[in-house]
What does this fold into?
Amino acid sequence: MKHNHIDFITLGCSKNLVDSEVLMRQLEANGYTCSHDADQLTGDIAVVNTCGFIGDAKQESINTILELVQAKEEGRISKLYVMGCLSQRYQQELKQEIPQVDKYYGKFDFQHLITDLGHSPKQLTPNRKITTPRHYAYVKIAEGCDRRCAYCAIPLITGHHVSRPMDDILDEVKSLVDMGVKEFQVIEQELTYYGVDLYGKRCIAELVDKMAQIEGIRWIRLHYAYPNGFPYELLDVMKRHKNVCNYLDIALQHIADPVLTRMHRNITKHETLEFIQRIRQEIPDICLRTTLMVGFPGETEADFDELLQFVREVRFERMGAFAYSEEEGTYSQLHYKDDIPEAEKQRRLDLLMATQQRISAEMMEKKIGSTMKVIIDRLEGDYYIARGEDSSPEVDPEVLIKADNHLDIGEFYDVTIFDATEFDLYAHLSSLDYEQ
It folds into this structure.
């Protein structure tokens, strides 16, 4: 056990990861060393950043806490702290059920851990310890959500949408560029709502336009947009700047009007189809990622068939899906009956994902023979693992390049695709010269 060493375990989304990175930077500035998601505990303190989004995520968080409680009881760590979404929402219950944790923090007071350890927060540039490969980073531009989708507990956890000042974001991005970061994943719960609370209008296009002009940024990728009220001027920014990836992550959830209405999505099937058509008309090579839900209360077999047909016809480049999980305190939990058996939810989910798998396989096969620019993420066994402009880290397909030549991690290369599976591409270098 290393004294003044803290092990961080981050669960859930990349927004949680940013919070962990901010806290780790502060702690290291106060004399600690920090490791993140290590294979085994090495320090005398452990910090768990929890997720509380859906049932499976909550259970994973609780299981992780209990495993660390056992480590504490066995003397492998001396202190255990818990932060994040689960403890933001269920702090009192957690204190009663798992009192062995030394202290619980929520989503917004976690920096109190610094003072609780006897130190003072510092003004730091950069303000984060990057835990991702050094060539890419996540940038969280807001917290919270003003949408009130019937199934979603996030507004209950994080509160109203609160944008970060634009200058603060741009200063952070510049400091990360100075550290060698070339690729930025811009994230928030409702990306296209950015700026409404601070500036009285949607400012995501202006923010991305200014980011794109920062020297040294090679790729900017946008996550978690909302279809209703989408600011189409963002597409103009994509067209104007080569370093803004032709990529949009937009969770649509469903397509059948009865389900969309019950979900409180404030958009219709017709409007959704027009929205997708306009994006693809303006940016023909756009990569659209979406997330869909099956098994929402009241979803009929006809509703599900409509969703399945929608996926077949629209042919999303990237798609994820999950089964409805009843979340305490949400509108759907309070007003709807969770009336679809779990086995039926799973059947629908499996069928939807199998449909997307076939679509993905066809799309990937069509890439054989094409040339694309990739960034090298890591060396894994006999292959370099890379991504193209149309792939976000950790969630999207990767490009595998046989390690016959030395390639530099974090650099860009032109490659030619020679083989494909449903979710991965195989490539060889088009040239040994890489683009600086």
Observations:
- The chain has a mean pLDDT of 93.
- Residues 150 and 262 are 7 Å apart (CA to CA).
- The longest strand covers residues 371-380.
